[in-house]
Amino acid sequence: MKTASHSPNSEIFSGRVRRSCLAVPGSQVRFHAKADQSSADHVFLDLEDSVAPDAKVAARAQVIDALRTLEFAGKVRAVRVNACDTAWCYEDIIAVVEGAADRLDCLVIPKVEDSDHVHFVDNLLNQIEGKLGLSRRIGLELQIESARGMENISAIARASSRAEALIFGPADFSASLHAPELTVGPLKPQYPGDYWHYFLARIVVAARANGLQAIDGPYAQIRDTNGLRTSAERTAMLGFDGKWAITPAQVEVLNEVFSPRQEDFDKATAILETYQGATGAGQNGAMLLGDEMIDEASRKMAWMMVERGLRLGMKARPWHPKSPPNLSA
Ligand code: GLV
Ligand code: MG
Predict the structure, then answer these.
(1) Would you write out the chain's pLDDT as a tens digit for each of its 329 residues?
(2) Helix (H, G, I), strand (E, B), or coil: what is residue 327?
């Protein structure tokens, strides 16, 4: 859902909070209540790759039961269905949307290869929502996880007004590239620079150009919290909104990394206040805040940070330009 922005800049997207998106295998019922109790912003019950082929049909009812009986209070509630070119996709969508109806916020569509996939899901949802008389539209989160999906990313990103986010899928993407990799989403320190940079940058640009959020995929080394943090910090720096967690133990780090740091929130608030106080008639568009020049572009950057923080309930403290924090640290 896109909500109205309070910003004077109409390009700015305010949507659901997705710092941590917790993946939960649909067929493993014991994990459902744990996900409900977790601090994840977003929980998605999976019918795709974490569910064995023989368990896929039964998992539909298990997922519907979880959505109907658990609260998932304050969380985005999503289901990942099977990909559009599988035998399960259309029945997944019909069963889950009809079964969970108003207790479902979004569908995650994996392995989106081109805009036709998105149109197919969009049309199917139109019919189901019409039949059920649902007043709220189901949103879409589109996984980009193949070379073809990456090539077609712009068309995919603008294919439906239901789209809310683009998600990177590093495991399937590595397989699609024929990259010699056996781990899901690792840091790859042996690569000069950040191995994932181009793909992630491509995704965040396509997302922002179409008013969508950008979400990074899983980091499978579940005991390597430092590696998870580094991976998340890199995507956060690019402008991503959040990242998948594959266990509740990964959630806390992600919620921290994808929240503005208090000192950055304070500085951003100071930029807005200084700028607003100094741009009246006869005044200049550029001014100093401490040792830094600020102007209209600074106001936009600051607003992005403030808007993100306000959605998380942050409160600004006084900020003193004498010891300016390093925004890029
Ligand atoms: C997630 O779906 C991935 O392929 O990494
Ligand atoms: Mg995948």
Answers:
(1) 333 333 333 333 458 999 999 999 999 999 999 999 999 999 999 999 999 999 999 999 999 999 999 999 999 999 999 999 999 999 999 999 999 999 999 999 999 999 999 999 999 999 999 999 999 999 999 999 999 999 999 999 999 999 999 999 999 999 999 999 999 999 999 999 999 999 999 999 999 999 999 999 999 999 999 999 999 999 999 999 999 999 999 999 999 999 999 999 999 999 999 998 776 666 788 999 999 999 999 999 999 999 999 999 999 999 988 655 566 65
(2) coil
Q: How far is the CA of 28 from the centre of ligand 2 (A)?
A: 18
CA of residue 124 to ligand 2 center, whole Å = 22
Segment (H or E) for 8:
none
List the residue whose alpha carbon is closest to atom 3 of ligand 1. 169
All CATH 3.20.20.60 domain ranges of the chain, comma separated, are 10-257
CA of 197 to the centre of ligand 1 (A): 17
On whether the 10-257 domain is CATH 3.20.20.60, my answer is yes
Pocket of ligand 1 (CB under 6 A): 110, 145, 169-172, 184, 217-218
Integer angstrom CA distances of residue 298 from 264, 286, 305 = 13, 10, 11
- For the entire predicted model, the pTM comes to 0.93
CA nearest neighbour of 218 among 244, 247, 252 = 244
